[in-house]
Amino acid sequence: MTVTGRSYAILGVLFAALLFAASGFLWFSDRGGATVGGPFTLTDGTGKPVTDRDFRGKYMLVYFGYTHCPDVCPTTLSDIAAALKLMGPKAASLAPVFITVDPARDTPAVIAHYAAQFSPAITGLSGTPAEIEAVAAEYHVYYAKHPKTEAELDYSVDHSSVLYLMGPDGGFVAPIPANSSSKELAAALGRAMR
Ligand code: NI
């Protein structure tokens, strides 16, 4: 093997190692807990700042949506409320959090009142558009305003619909499909919360 040949061979091995490391990293960031969720500061219905740290010691069930949502959000919140009842005493260590993706209409008071109608155990949170953008990015939640009229007097907000279970230490535990029935939801939470 010539010197050049050997260099190419070494480069090839290095490149392969790099690819392997990169794919491992991508796989990890896709699967691993580290990249879902993170610190946030939002506002509750009383106008008080609420951070992720306020939920430490409890499991947090995070869901993003908005109060004008015609179907998915109210159904999901009803299922969460029903699941809490099915879970019995374990429900006491779960804090469901409903974060708006429509801060323009969902003021902290509006979303808190809406969430509480489903269950007083569900905390509704809002914030500035920048705060909402930041927390949605941390949870990889997509949302986009979808105007219904030219004047945008009425609009819907398309948004991804996944429930995120976070552990008592704030770390990501598991995603749960938002279209689960209340029974499926209670069972999945019961399994994940040890
Ligand atoms: Ni919705």
Fold and architecture overview:
Helix 3 (108-118) links the parallel strand 4 and strand 5 (123-125). The strands form three sheets. A five-stranded mixed beta sheet has the order 5-4-3-8-9. A two-stranded antiparallel ribbon has the order 1-2. It is built from five helices and nine strands, in the order αβββαβαβαββββα. The chain is globular and about 50 Å long. The chain has two domains: 1-32; 35-192, Glutaredoxin, CATH 3.40.30.10. With 194 residues, the chain is an alpha/beta fold. Residues 65, 69, 72-73, 159 line the site of nickel (II) ion.
Secondary-structure blueprint:
Blueprint lengths: L2 H29 L9 E3 L5 E3 L7 E7 L6 H16 L6 E7 L7 H11 L4 E3 L3 H10 L4 E5 L7 E5 L2 E5 L5 E6 L4 H11 L2
Parallel strand pairs: 3-4, 4-5
Antiparallel strand pairs: 1-2, 3-8, 6-7, 8-9
Helix pairs in contact: 2-5
The site of nickel (II) ion (NI) has 5 residues, from helix 2.
Just name the CATH architecture of the largest domain: 3-Layer(aba) Sandwich
Q: Unreliable runs, pLDDT <50, ≥5 residues?
A: 13-34
Secondary-structure element string: HEEEHEHEHEEEEH
Structural class: alpha/beta
The 3D shape can be described as globular
- What is the CATH C level class of the largest domain, in words? Alpha Beta
Mean pLDDT: 86
Strand order of the largest sheet: 5-4-3-8-9
CATH fold-level name of the largest domain = Glutaredoxin
CA distance, first residue to last residue = 59 Å
Helix content: 25-40%
- The fraction of residues in strands falls at 15-25%
Instruction: Give me the count of strands.
Output: 9
CA radius of gyration is 21 Å
> What about the largest sheet?
5 strands, mixed
Bound small molecules, which ones? nickel (II) ion
What is the H level of CATH, i.e. the homologous superfamily of the largest domain? Glutaredoxin
Contiguous helical run count: 5
